[in-house]
# Entry
Amino acid sequence: MNPFNFIYLITFYICANIIRMEYKTGTKIKPLLSQPQNTVITVKGLTAAGVTHAQILRFEKAEILKRLNTGAYARFNENPDILGAIYSLQNDLNLTAHIGGRTALSLVYGKTQYAAERKTELFCYKQEKLPAWFKSIYADSYTQFMTDFLPAKEGLTEWEHTGYKILVSSQERALLEMLYQVPGTVTPQEAFEIMQLITAIKPAVMQKLLESCKSVKTKRLLLCLSEACGHQWFSRLKIENIDLGSGIREITKGGKYNTKYNLVLPEGLETL
# Structure
């Protein structure tokens, strides 16, 4: 072996082991020790905790960290999925991005069959920007909804997933987020079928969300479909305190008119 190569290998070995020792003892990179497994480790989160860029590069060379994209790392032997990335969006970047709509109803609450081939429905407050690393790595894994029809932080709850917690929509908020998509990515018939499964709503939580909801269409659909399903929680809502706007909302072009809620719905649904 070339003596220069030998010296290089010995030097690299010594440095790598020093860095690994720092990692194990937590003397230099304590944030890594507290970071949940299989979550994205962001440069912003590390630097906020006092880790320098030089130290980050040293741990990358020592194969303790691996670069996922600019600004994003993972432990060397981990491959965070989109849920592990959402953890970092919420905890490192303080974004309101959260799982909602049909994804929350199926994955978190088991109210519909979770379709693995369906993209994760990620709700973000209007004008909030996702980092470039997230959009690059997980582009094929999610559908983003930029909305402000509900207050950014109202109706969210913690959900524990494989050793860490992320904020997700409560069942009440997820239901409204699903109805907000009608008739775009959710058909009126699918919305009705899902509504039939939602039997355990907290009326007080739903009432508060309905009173702060800006989407007249969504509020009318919620009331129309839940009443049609005969849910007990519907009777406990104070409809007189909910602003249902004026005028007709056309859900289905050329559909049938529901006189009580001023909705144009597919034939058969308007008489529910």
About this structure: The radius of gyration is 24 Å. Residues 3-16 have pLDDT under 50 and may be disordered. The CA atoms of residues 18 and 188 lie 61 Å apart.
